[in-house]
């Protein structure tokens, strides 16, 4: 379940993105154009906390030397990584109906994910899909 306005809000909203996002098409266009570096910082700040180092998470999504070269926008590929983490966060907050519980889920090792933390899987499409599948199973009380 993709909620483009919620994902856009996690990415920094209209103020950061410089446009409103109300559909998947809008979200795709924003990501393909390259997200602002500020979106990366907003998402990482929202997810990071106890057990997750902001710098580590930031540089897992966009390598340190690459980020230093970026002036205002991320590349489309880097933007996809950031959007995946924002999408995963939006879905976790929807399923848990509580930002703190969603944060705990995202930053804690999950046995159903081979003991990996969901935030660690956000850098790949398949890892993100794995987390989304787990979240949907939890949402609908399906066997995990």
Please identify the structural class as seen in this structure. mainly alpha
Gyration radius, in Å = 14 Å
Number of E strands: 0
**How many structurally independent domains?**
1
* Beta-strand percentage range: under 5%
Please work out how many helical segments DSSP would assign: 10
Write the H/E string, N to C.
Answer: HHHHHHHHHH
**Whole-number average pLDDT?**
92
How many strands, which pairing sense, and closed or not: the largest β-sheet? none
What would the principal axes of the Cα set say about the shape?
globular
Helix content bin: 55-70%
Please report the distance between the alpha carbons of the first and last residues. 18 Å
Uncertain runs with pLDDT below 50, 5 residues or more?
A: none
């Amino acid at each position: 379940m993709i909620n483009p306005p919620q994902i856009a809000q996690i990415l920094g909203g209209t103020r950061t993105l410089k446009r409103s996002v109300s559909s998947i098409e809008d979200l795709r266009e924003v990501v393909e154009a390259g997200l602002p570096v500020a979106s990366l910082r907003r998402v990482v700040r929202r997810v990071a906390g106890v057990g997750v180092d902001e710098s580590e998470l930031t540089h897992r999504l966009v390598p340190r030397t690459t980020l230093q070269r970026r002036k205002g926008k991320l590349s489309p590929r880097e933007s996809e990584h950031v959007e995946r983490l924002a999408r995963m966060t939006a879905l976790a907050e929807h399923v848990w109906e509580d930002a703190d519980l969603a944060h705990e889920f995202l930053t804690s090792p999950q046995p159903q994910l081979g003991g990996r933390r969901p935030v660690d899987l956000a850098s790949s499409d398949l890892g993100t899909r794995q987390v989304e599948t787990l979240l949907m199973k939890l949402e609908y009380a399906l066997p995990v």
